[in-house]
TrEMBL record:
<dbReference type="GO" id="GO:0046872">
    <property type="term" value="F:metal ion binding"/>
</dbReference>
<dbReference type="GO" id="GO:0009432">
    <property type="term" value="P:SOS response"/>
</dbReference>
<dbReference type="InterPro" id="IPR013815">
    <property type="entry name" value="ATP_grasp_subdomain_1"/>
</dbReference>
<dbReference type="GO" id="GO:0005737">
    <property type="term" value="C:cytoplasm"/>
</dbReference>
<protein>
    <recommendedName>
        <fullName>ATP-grasp domain-containing protein</fullName>
    </recommendedName>
</protein>
<dbReference type="Pfam" id="PF08443">
    <property type="entry name" value="RimK"/>
</dbReference>
<dbReference type="GO" id="GO:0018169">
    <property type="term" value="F:ribosomal S6-glutamic acid ligase activity"/>
</dbReference>
<dbReference type="InterPro" id="IPR013651">
    <property type="entry name" value="ATP-grasp_RimK-type"/>
</dbReference>
<dbReference type="InterPro" id="IPR011761">
    <property type="entry name" value="ATP-grasp"/>
</dbReference>
<keyword id="KW-0067">ATP-binding</keyword>
<keyword id="KW-0547">Nucleotide-binding</keyword>
<dbReference type="GO" id="GO:0005524">
    <property type="term" value="F:ATP binding"/>
</dbReference>
<feature type="domain" description="ATP-grasp">
    <location>
        <begin position="86"/>
        <end position="280"/>
    </location>
</feature>
Length: 281
């Protein structure tokens, strides 16, 4: 396994890296203080390499300065959270489960200008807007589980976290994740864990491909999504719809690597080098 990539000698630069394993002409920790020294390096650079977690202000500043970025996180920051992804998929005309977004619990109450909402029948899925790895996701089967989910939403609102989605429940024994690393699209199937979740952190299990046509459809949708958005590093989750086949569920820009084994760094470094070659002077 390759542990570090040195790109400081390439002719595409100057390059600034906030990624701890990518060494460039200028190197900084992603959560460094933003001062004139750091900004002067941004102003001298042509390209920036990002880690998966960093302050979004850096990204917008780099865009304003005209820097080339890898990974491309434009869609990530323009359409944040699960609600943003819902709107992104809708705007691109891509298949997605029937979903309603509530910016806050008050949207369930009475307001003279509020839109009336028709809830799907039980069971349906409730998801908080910003939790990950299967956290904040509830299968609402009846009034009791509805109240449990609402209690979680109320608790999060007290902590300053707002927004949740209600989504039709698509029952299937497995789902599909496609990991995008540069130009590589890597499909992985996951069987349900003890509850209805397939996240490995929640007890889901990797399985071999059960239906090749569904995998082909998901790869085609991934290609279309990436072509329209520029996404080049993400894990894209698909659900199985009885009539539509595979439908988009979520984009994970920060994702677990257990399905990839030890290959992530090698694939990521190759994607970085391919990106830089495309920009060589």
């Amino acid at each position: 396994m390759v542990d570090e990539l040195n790109i400081s000698t390439l002719t595409a630069g100057p390059i600034i890296s906030l990624h701890p394993l990518v060494k460039a002409d200028f190197n900084f920790w992603a959560f460094s203080a933003i001062n004139d020294e750091l900004l002067s390096c941004f102003s001298r650079a042509r390209i920036v390499i990002w880690p998966q977690v960093f302050p979004s202000q850096f990204y917008f500043y780099a865009c304003q300065m005209g820097l080339h970025s890898f990974p491309n996180y434009e869609a990530r920051f323009k359409f944040p959270g699960k609600s943003g992804q819902m709107l992104l998929f809708k705007s691109l005309g891509l298949p997605y489960p029937e979903t309603i977004f509530f910016p806050k619990l008050a949207a369930l109450g009475e307001h003279p200008d509020a839109i009336s909402v028709n809830f799907p029948p039980f069971p349906f899925v409730l998801k908080t807007d910003d939790e990950h790895e299967g956290q904040g996701v509830f299968l609402v089967k009846d009034e009791k589980t509805w109240q449990t989910a609402l209690s979680h939403i109320k608790k999060r609102e007290r902590e300053g976290h707002f927004g949740f989605l209600i989504q039709e429940f698509l029952q299937a024994p497995y789902d599909l994740r496609v990991v995008v690393i540069g130009k590589e699209f890597l499909p992985f199937w996951r069987a349900l864990g003890p509850d209805f979740k397939t996240n490995l952190a929640q007890g889901g299990k990797p399985i071999s491909c059960p239906e090749k046509p569904l995998e082909t459809q998901a790869l085609s949708l991934t290609h279309e999504l990436c072509q329209k958005t520029g996404i080049n590093l993400a894990a894209i989750d698909f659900l199985i719809h009885s009539q539509k086949g595979t439908v988009l569920n979520e984009i994970n820009y920060v994702f677990g690597r257990r399905l990839l084994g030890n290959s992530f760094n090698e694939l990521f470094f190759k994607a970085v080098k391919d990106f830089l070659r495309s920009l060589e002077k």
